[in-house]
């Protein structure tokens, strides 16, 4: 279970990084502002998912909130 959550956390963070880079690249090119906005919205969703997965990893390992 812990190994699966760790892999899921890595995938979530990698997805977040990829979406961030794609959004920044689209914004820098300046071709399509709607595409840039879409990527940035996707980044917010990916960031929320990554945060929830990381919280799940912390709770599963016993290092959750208050469990320093």
**SSE pattern:** HH
Please give the alpha-carbon distance between the first and last residues: 21 Å
Tell me the helix content.
over 70%
Number of strands: 0
**Average pLDDT, all residues:** 86
Shape: elongated
What are the segments in which pLDDT stays under 50 over at least 5 consecutive residues? Answer: none
How many H/I helical runs? 2
* Secondary-structure class: mainly alpha
In this structure, how is the largest beta sheet organized?
Answer: none
Give the arrangement of secondary structure elements.
Layout lengths: L1 H28 L3 H28 L8
Helix pairs in contact: 1-2
In words, what does this structure look like?
- This protein is mainly α and 68 residues long.
- Helix content is 82%, strand content 0%.
- α1 runs antiparallel to α2 (33-60).
- The longest helix has 28 residues, at 2-29.
- The radius of gyration is 15 Å and the shape is elongated.
- The mean pLDDT is 86.
Please tag this protein with its features.
mainly alpha; 68 residues; 0% strand
Quick description:
It is built from two helices and no strands. With 68 residues, the protein is an all-alpha fold.
């Amino acid at each position: 279970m812990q190994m699966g959550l760790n892999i899921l956390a890595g995938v979530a963070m990698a997805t977040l990084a990829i979406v961030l880079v794609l959004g920044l690249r689209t914004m820098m090119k300046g071709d399509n502002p709607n595409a840039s906005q879409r990527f940035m919205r996707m980044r917010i969703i990916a960031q929320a998912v990554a945060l929830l997965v990381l919280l799940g990893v912390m709770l599963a390992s016993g290092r959750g909130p208050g469990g320093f």
